[in-house]
Each structure stands twice: as C-alpha cells, then as structure tokens.
Amino acid sequence: MRVSWEELYERIGACERCGLRRGCTQTVPGEGDIHARLMCIGEGPGAEEDRLGRPFVGASGQLLDKMLAAIDLHREQVYIANIVKCRPPQNRQPSPEEAEACLPYLRAQVALIRPRVILLLGATAARNTIGPEVRITRDRGRWVERKGVWMMPTYHPSALLRTPSLKRDAWTDLQAVREKLRELEQEGERIVHDEA
Ligand code: SF4
C-alpha cells in the first residue's frame, strides 16, 4: 500500500476490514515523529486509547513513557503504533485474521517512516512482524534484521505492570536499543563523512 499519511489515516478511519471496528469507539492509527529512528509497536488499543483515539495513553502508556525516558527519549521523538488499530473487546488478543486484515496499515506506516530500529512490545507485535515462531520469554532481547531495519522483541508494558520482576530484562533490552541507535547513528555519520 503506497499512500500519503493523509490517505493512510483516512483509510484507517473509514476501515471495516475486520469485525473489531463494530466494537470500538474509534480507530487508533498511531502517533509520533514521522521521521523517527525508533518505532514502538504494541498489540492494540485498550480502553483509554479507544476513548482518546491515541496509542499507549493508559497505565501501559505511562510506563512506556518511563521506559523511553530511561534511554533519553520522549514519546514525541518516536512513532508509536499497534498491530490492530481498533480495540479488541475486553482487551483480548486480536485473532490472526484481525491482525492480518490490519497489517497493511502498519506496513504502510513502516514504509513511510523508514525507522532504523523497531521495538516490538509483546508477543502479538513480535509474532506478526518477525514470525509466528517467536516466544517472548525466549526471544526477547534478540535482534532480527530485515532490509536494514533492526527489530527487537521485548515485554509489553502491561506484562511489566502485572509482573514487575520482568522489568530487569526489559531494562537490559532498552539499553541494547539505545546502543543500537548510537551504533547506527555513528555508522551513518561515517558514511556521510566518507562520501564528503
Ligand atoms: S482493526 Fe484494523 S483492519 Fe480491523 S477494522 Fe480496525 S482498522 Fe480495519
């Protein structure tokens, strides 16, 4: 799907490609810096996100803000989106069919932003991007590179709220993200320098 941001948001707003649209208040396309080097992808909107039309604004969102702050980033400096743009009832996981129906929008967002690093928050985000074989407890913190984009699965902030002992691993993952961003920036500077 090759579209402008305006067209993309219009299409998402009018979308009825899956049954989730009937049960939600509004679509939650995503938000942030459209030139971001880091993109964060979660599962789907929750109650607060559904009410406000913005991603990660509930308790999980507040924790995500803190996680980003831990690597010196504000939410305005990254782009935040979800696998599905409409809230699943009772915050259940989106079905594979619902995720499949919605993925073209996420792919279009990635194509427009062209981030260098994608942080995948939770199993749903990781399985629908890296592959269905991903197990979050086994694969968190491992880099996967696809077409120059570095992706890393880590725990969803809601999992960290439920199980605070996981925060230590999430912290390690975030440090690795910070390192990768630095590394890529230095690499970019070297290329610019060599070409000058
Ligand atoms: S979840 Fe995605 S595919 Fe389903 S109706 Fe909403 S925008 Fe469309």
Question: What would your notes on this structure say?
Answer:
This protein has helices at 5-13, 20-23, 47-52, 59-70, 96-113, 123-127, 136-139, 157-162, 167-195, and strands at 31-32, 38-42, 79-82, 117-121, 144-146, 149-154. It is α/β, with parallel strands linked by helices and 196 residues long. The protein has a single domain (5-195), classed as 3-Layer(aba) Sandwich (Uracil-DNA Glycosylase, subunit E), CATH 3.40.470. A six-stranded mixed sheet has the order 1-3-2-4-6-5, with helices on both faces. Strand 5 (144-146) and strand 6 (149-154) form a beta hairpin. It is globular, with a radius of gyration of 16 Å. The mean pLDDT is 95. Iron/sulfur cluster (SF4) binds at residues 12, 15-18, 20-21, 27, 84-86, 98, 101-102.
CATH-derived architecture: 3-Layer(aba) Sandwich
Helical run tally: 9
If you compute it from the alpha carbons, what radius of gyration comes out, rounded to the nearest whole angstrom?
16 Å
Helical content class: 40-55%
Oligomer: single chain
Ends apart, CA distance between termini: 35 Å
Order of helices and strands: HHEEHHEHEHHEEHH
- Indicate the overall shape: globular
Largest sheet: 6 strands, mixed
Number of domains: 1
- CATH first level: Alpha Beta
Ligands, deduplicated: iron/sulfur cluster
Determine the mean pLDDT: 95
Task: Let me know the CATH homologous superfamily.
Answer: Uracil-DNA glycosylase-like domain
In spatial order, strands of the major sheet run: 1-3-2-4-6-5
